[in-house]
Structure formats: structure tokens, C-alpha cells
């Protein structure tokens, strides 16, 4: 290869001093206008470079970086291009890593007989600096390999408040009138009555089409909205980095439960309605159902759920269902499901709804509070499905405020299948034996309004690491009370 004239030189970085923990960066400027001719001919020329006056740029290191450099700076003039001895520790790249792996496999990293480990380390067998050899010849990784290269996500230093101060302190805008624009403010497509309607962005107040405002985000605290709101694509990109903070501070799941009185002084606790329109209502209904079962277990243990069944349960689904008909009956209700984690605690709740039909010798109407026991992890995974089907047989008898329903069913969904056992207390006038079929679906919109995270799935809630929401504390207290009443 043809050599170049010594017209290019690199200035080196001066040493890093611990006393002031600053470093200086020297830049080189091109000063010659001529392009000297390359020795090999061909007419190609290259600019000449000489060192200019150095400009100092300082950066204040945090105290934890005082040990960086060990009083030695980086000097590019000491760097060699060959594979010989290095003036400092080599960089970690693919070539060096592969060379180190080959050295480990072939045994070149071990100390030869009659040779000290210090002599072995001087040989260029492997230039991977994070691999070392002990006195017995074993290879170990340097402790610096385990040091994280970035701060944790939720540490205070990981969030720059000043960069998002304008967004976090934003106030609700004044919406533009519908007549102010006849086209979408992003894609400029004209609005139509049916296919392209007008939608206001809740963060900026602009008018956009449905396609350009599909995102849902939690808004800053001054908007006084706890449910995710429709925003345009541009505002979604601005708000998305802040969703983790807003979910942990202003979402419905992070708030304390407001309705926690379930005695005779509150009419809300007298009767569970079959349909709940929010997760908070479902938590209240489920808590009321569990407290009713706790009272039944104390007064009449024979009518309660067997303790052995509850101890082995991997999850519970709690619903309130209305049922009515003659020969052919119809069922509709909503509720929630929780699973038991490996440490014995209960997971966050996931909202569900159920519709079904029953056929058999039956007549009347009743309101039923169901507790579906999920005996194994397969049954829990069934409730992780967006929708699953159940088929079973049961008998029901209700007269006035006290009734009894026993069912056993088989459930199957896209995440699995499993056998479940259903216990319930009913109110009304109904009697019959029937074959039951139900469709149970996860209420994704209810989960979104409660947790505020559009990326959260049912699998994350029931089997993942989602923290137990503060708003569900009454539910966990009722579960603990139920188990305590059965054990006493």
C-alpha cells in the first residue's frame, strides 16, 4: 500500500486531573489551501493539516467518576494500528471478543508450565481487557463488566424535569370551533359526515380526523382528567415519554378507593347491580360479594366454599349476573378476575363481562353473585384470553333474598382451557336444572380507563408484574377476611 506524507497529525487529549475533574478537548483546523499530490500518482491530492490553537472545553464529572482515567489520559499518538502491544487497555469490539473466546476454547489463556501469570499476561494471546487469568489458570470476568452503563429507569437522574416542564405544567386549551377548519389540520383531508368526522385533540385543541387522532394518553394534572383522552399524533409523541409518570400519579388505579362503606347505612351495598360501568364499581361489587360470603361462612359453614378448594385456587373470578327466562334463560353480567402469584399475594384485577344462554327445566328470574374458582394455571390463562367460551351444567334454587347455585363448567379460549367451579348466592324467585353456555370477554376499554396504559394486556395484569393498584385495597382486604373466616 502506498504511504502518505506526514501531513496529518492528531492532537492528543491531555490528562484528566482528579483535582478539578475536568477534561480538555483539542481540535485541529485545516489551514492549508493546497492539496499535495499523492506519492503513488494518479493526481489525487489530500489536504495538509497542522495543529491550531487549542480550545478548551470543560465538563464537570459527577463525584462517582473521580476514579475515571487513573491519572492517565488518552493519547492518540500512542495508539498503534497493528496487533502488537497496546499502550493501554484495548477497546471492546467484536474482533476482540471473538479473539478472547477462541483463546478460552484453545487454552491459550492458561498459564504454561514454568511460566508465571505475569509473563502470560504480557503475551499477546488475547487482547480482551475484561478477561483475566487466576493463579490456577482459570479465567474470570473483571468486576467492571457487571457495572451498569446507564442509570435505572425510575431513578431521579433518569428523568429530566426541565425538559418536560412545559408539558407537565400545561393548562387545558380552548378548543377551536368546528367551523374554523374544513380539512384535517394534519393530513389536510376534507371532513365528511360519515367517513371522516371531526375530532378535537384534548391537549392542543386542534381539529383532526379519526385517523390522525387515534392515540389515547393521560394528560397533565391541570387538565383534571384521570381517563386517557384522545390526542392528535403530534401531541401523542410529546406525551408518550411522560405516561409512566402520569400512570403512577393521576390514573384511576393510583387513587384511593372512595366508596368503601358496605353496611346497612349505604344503599349501594344492599344489592349488587349486574352491570358495572367502571373498574371502581367492579371492585366495590366484588368486595361486597366477598364480604357476604364471609358472613355466610361464619353463620353457616356448610353453605360456604370449602377451604380446601380456596386454598388450592390459583385465581378467582367474581361476577354479578342477572338471569331470567322459562325453559330458555338469558344471562348478563360483569365482574373482575384476580390471580394468585407465586408469593401468595393477589394480582391486579382485570375487568370481564359475561353473556349466556341456558336451556332446561327452569323458570323465573334471579340475581346471582358468582365466585368462580380457578383451580390451576390453565384456568387462569383461559381468562387471559380476549374472549373464551364455557359450557357446563348446574342447578339453581332461589326464593327471596337467599338462594343457592352450584355449577361446574369447562372453559376454552385462545390462551388455553381449564375446568372451573362456580359458587354463588342468588336473590329472586327461580328454580331449575339447566345446561349453560356462556361467552366471557375481557373489557379492554375498562382496563384502559383504570390503568391508563394502552399497551397493557390481560396477561400482564394477571401473570405479569403489574403492581397492585391502590384503588383495589378494599378488594384485597375482603379476600384476606374471607380466608380468615374459613380458617377460624
TrEMBL record:
InterPro entries found in the cross-reference section: SH3_domain_YSC84-like, Ysc84_actin-binding, Znf_FYVE, Znf_FYVE-rel, Znf_FYVE_PHD, Znf_RING/FYVE/PHD
SMART domains in alphabetical order: FYVE
Biased composition (Low complexity): 115-125
Region Disordered, annotated ranges: 112-132
PANTHER family xrefs: SH3 DOMAIN-CONTAINING YSC84-LIKE PROTEIN 1, SH3YL1 PROTEIN
Keywords (A to Z) from UniProt: Metal-binding, Zinc, Zinc-finger
Protein name per UniProt: Putative chromatin regulator PHD family
GO MF, one annotated term: zinc ion binding
Location of the FYVE-type domain: 178-240
Organism, scientific name: Rosa chinensis (China rose)
Coiled coil: none
